[in-house]
Design goal:
Radius of gyration: 18 Å
CATH architecture: Orthogonal Bundle
Helix content: 55-70%
Largest sheet: none
CATH topology: Catalytic domain of cyclic nucleotide phosphodiesterase 4b2b
Strand content: under 5%
Amino acid sequence: MTASTPGAALQRAEAELVHLRARPADMGAALTQALGMVLRGQGLPPGVAEAAALIARAVEAHAASFPPGGEPDYHDHHHQAEATLAMGWLCAEALRLGQLDAGHAVAGILAMAGHDLQHDGSIPPPGTLEARSAALTAALAAQAGLDQTVQDQIRQVIVATDPSRAAAGLDEDSMLCRLAREADVFASLTPELGWRLSQAFAREVRAAGGNAAPPPDSFAGRLQWLRAQRPMTEAARNLGLEAGIAAQLAAMADLGDGDPEAGARRLDAMPPGEACAHYRAAVAAV
């Protein structure tokens, strides 16, 4: 994805993600597209095609193991394909900036494809699901013949997506791990699709018996989450994530006469449909 301005880049990204959500999720296509972005016409390194196919089949098999409509509301097949595609965008931009090499980018994309492998929507102790996904994905990479260095990179990247950890295997400031954390929440940070995903995450948490305060599907909860985002990589800034966060915070401030908390309270007091309409209009006006 080539950006003219960060705002335009994020609008294009969100439009593509919304378009993809109107169709069945396709992990194989997401992997092919993401790998193509970072290899830029070069052939796939040995074992990468096999690893991508194994990971895609494993993700699809897990999705198919649920009854129709029974996948977790947020951590479903769509989320995994979106995170993979977002990792391709981010890694391609980091490559363009000279901050990453193609080998690390390929490992990062394979990792994002498997970063929620066998996620069941439950809420076990922090890091449990990431550790399981990391072991499963690294094993598939080994089965495809990828070497131990790539397997270790895949494990480290997946473990780094555990939101409770400040550092995971690689140094906290590892470019690949930072990009992975941004890819994991890329779709959720977009203004319109992101609000829908906040609602999906809230349904998943409630189904698992969780109780977050403020709830993720409240504007107070979204405000809190947006403010908690870590400083972005240059690649993420160029693709509009930082500008998107700023626009949403400014929209809530405008709705609250300069006070974002008041704006969030005002939205939460409205009927849901009316609140969404006001929020979308306020973001568009920023």
